[in-house]
Write a structure and sequence with these properties.
Layout (H helix, E strand, L loop, with lengths): L2 H17 L6 E4 L5 H9 L9 E4 L2 H9 L13 E6 L3 E2 L5 E2 L6 H10 E9 L15 E5 L4 H12 L5 E2 L16 E5 L3 H4 L2 H9 L4 E4 L1 E2 L5 E5 L5 E5 L4 E4 L8
Parallel strand pairs: 1-2, 1-3, 3-6, 6-12
Antiparallel strand pairs: 4-5, 5-11, 7-9, 7-10, 8-9, 12-13, 13-14
The protein binds ribulose-5-phosphate (5RP).
Length: 252
């Protein structure tokens, strides 16, 4: 297992250990490459899971839940979630984050908003002071296909992202299509703009045709970052930061 994978796994294990309580029944599962470790740790709770239902944020996390043999549910059955675990593309000092690198941020935000507790898990590269530091491809924006060209024009001309672009698929001709059959625009903004993510999020959200913006502001209770040295840094709502040496067996 590579150092990065080890860091992701450390973060996920520590986050589950601290935040998944025996009384929790409805669990939101986000998307990305860190979330499988969340599911791995939850799965290890065994019998405790038989009274739980897991709400996935998309195709990938649904497959994770199904292949672990855990109970699958949907947010329309369970609009109140006890705790949601999810990855992030970057998390700032105030626990605001960029999400949507995997084009899942609409459903992820629904699961985050439905949750009493929203927890982020990531490797050390995602732990930044200001958003956009390492994740420079821009803010992911899910848009209705009919409106994409107009939204691009609004972003480039009015909102201040001259290089905003439609995300293109890699092993398919044409654009990335989300689990909701929408397109994704990536919109980079200046560093100063990204220092106030709530303001730019609200501006983008007002554009007609935008379905959801991959900026999650004031939502997370805590973010767990696995570090290269085997420790986990925890940033908590309110500004607390601590580093712990987890007692979980560190995978090699
Ligand atoms: O927002 C997401 C998908 O839309 C992911 O949570 C985000 O991209 C982080 O993924 P990873 O854990 O692979 O770094």
């Amino acid at each position: 297992m590579s150092g990065i994978e080890r860091s992701k796994r450390l973060a996920a294990f520590a986050a589950v250990d601290e935040n998944l309580l025996a009384k929790h029944r409805v669990i939101g599962i986000g998307s990305g490459s860190t979330v499988p470790y969340v599911v791995e740790r939850i799965f290890s709770r065994g019998e405790e899971n038989k009274d739980r239902v897991f709400i996935p944020s998309g195709f990938q996390s649904k497959e994770l839940v199904v292949s672990a043999g855990m109970n699958l549910g949907d947010v329309d059955q369970y609009p109140i979630i006890d705790v949601t675990f999810d990855g992030a593309d970057e998390v700032d000092a105030n626990l605001n984050c960029i999400k949507g690198g995997g084009a899942c941020h609409l459903r992820e935000k629904v699961l985050a908003e439905a949750a009493k507790i929203f927890i982020l898990v990531a490797d050390y590269r995602k732990n930044v002071e200001f958003l956009g530091t390492n994740f420079s491809q821009g803010v992911p924006i899910e848009v209705v296909p009919f409106a994409y060209a107009k939204v691009l024009q609004n972003l480039r001309g009015v909102v201040g992202s001259p290089t905003a672009s439609l995300r293109m698929a890699v092993k398919k001709a044409g654009p990335v299509v989300s689990d909701n059959a929408n397109f994704i625009i990536d919109a980079p903004f200046d560093r100063e703009v990204m220092k106030d993510p709530y303001t730019i999020m609200a501006k983008i959200k007002m554009i007609t045709g935008v379905v959801e913006v991959g900026l999650f502001c004031h939502m997370a209770k805590a973010a767990y970052f696995g570090n290269e040295d085997g420790t986990v840094t925890i940033k908590r709502r309110g500004g607390g930061v601590e580093t712990l040496q987890p007692e979980v067996a560190t995978p090699q």
